[in-house]
Design brief:
Its EC number is 3.6.3.-. The chain is of the alpha/beta class. The chain has 2 domains: 1-86 and 179-270, Rossmann fold (3-Layer(aba) Sandwich); 98-177, no CATH class. Helices cover 39% and strands 23% of the residues. The strands form 2 sheets. It has a 6-stranded mixed β-sheet, with helices on both faces. It has a 4-stranded antiparallel β-sheet with strand order 2-1-4-5, covered by helices on one side. A hairpin with a 2-residue loop joins β1 (9-20) and β2 (23-34). α3 (102-111) crosses α5 (129-146) and α3 (102-111) runs parallel beside α7. The chain is globular, with a radius of gyration of 19 Å. Bound molecules: adenosine-5'-diphosphate and magnesium ion (MG). Adenosine-5'-diphosphate (ADP) binds next to β2 and α1.
């Protein structure tokens, strides 16, 4: 079905504030994410982008405010239960099992995200072979849907993959839990422009194949949110500066000043 004007809100945050001692990492931020929507979140380093994802996924408990998934409050729900309810994510830094095969990383992703659970997923006695075969078949289908090239490398240890393929694998692993909401934290970080563009194409295809999936993609590079997201939210110093279609937000003086201006200054070596 995809995003329409009447698509229901799947995820929303209200009045989210996060304090670390005296530091206010997030100040009264509100957001909504509709079914089938791709929301870009941009902002300079330290703006609070990862903090927002950590709040949504139960890693941080907000100092105040509330997150709701399909109307149900998530505050205080443990991280693994939030995954089970339908929110999956990738991290800014890789969390793959480098010694395990690409395929096994996806199979494990479907079962659990805790270390004890991983052990259980692989070694649990009495796990029927049929069940394992079904898990492998599901993982293969998933890998193919994310990237043919990655699927071809499914028996290689994840640690041997090129960086862009590691990112693809992280996405495949997150999708293995059949999420309603997928959160990507700077999937392009550390990659060159060509690899980044190819990865963005794959993310676009992943969304096209799953029209009901709601995606939140964090980037610090303005260029990367120009084409993929339906809507972009700009954070700066933990505050929401703007929220709207890229063509609108990029014209807002406060955004240009706070975000683009500073970036230009960084490029100039400041
Ligand atoms: P971004 O992802 O936009 O670069 P973050 O959300 O990681 O920014 O960080 C926002 C601010 O919150 C930064 O000043 C960061 O140092 C601070 N911060 C994030 N997590 C913690 C934490 N666990 N303890 C203390 N400060 C934190
Ligand atoms: Mg971050």
């Amino acid at each position: 079905m995809g995003l329409t004007a009447s698509s229901p809100i799947v995820l929303e945050g209200e009045n989210l504030t996060m304090r670390f001692g005296g530091l206010v990492a997030m100040a009264e931020v509100a957001f909504t994410l509709k079914r089938g929507e791709i929301l870009g979140i941009i902002g300079p380093n330290g703006a609070g982008k990862s903090t927002l994802l950590n709040i949504i996924t139960g890693i941080y408990i907000p100092s105040s405010g509330e997150v709701r998934l399909e109307g149900e409050r998530l505050n205080g729900v443990p991280a693994h239960k939030i995954v089970a309810r339908g929110i999956a994510r990738t991290f800014q830094s890789s969390r793959l099992f480098g010694d395990l095969s690409v395929l096994d990383n996806v199979i494990i992703g479907r079962h659990t995200h805790t270390k004890a659970g991983v052990f259980d997923a692989i070694f649990r006695r009495g796990r029927a072979k049929a069940e394992l075969d079904a898990a492998a078949a599901h993982a293969e289908t998933l890998l193919k849907s994310v990237s043919r090239g990655l699927h071809e490398q499914r028996h290689r240890p994840a640690g041997e993959l090129a960086q862009a393929d590691r990112r693809r694998l992280e996405i495949a692993r997150a999708l293995a839990t059949d999420p309603k909401v997928l959160l990507l934290d700077e999937p392009s970080s550390g990659m060159d422009d060509a690899d980044t563009d190819a990865l963005m194409d794959d993310i676009r295809a992943v969304c096209a194949q799953r029209p009901d999936l709601a995606l939140m993609i964090i980037e610090h590079d303005m260029r990367l949110v120009a084409s993929l997201p339906h809507r972009v939210m700009v954070l700066d110093y933990g505050q929401k500066l703007a929220d709207g279609p890229y063509e609108e937000i990029r014209r807002i003086p406060r955004v240009q000043e706070a975000y683009l201006g500073r970036k230009a200054a960084q490029h100039a070596g400041a």
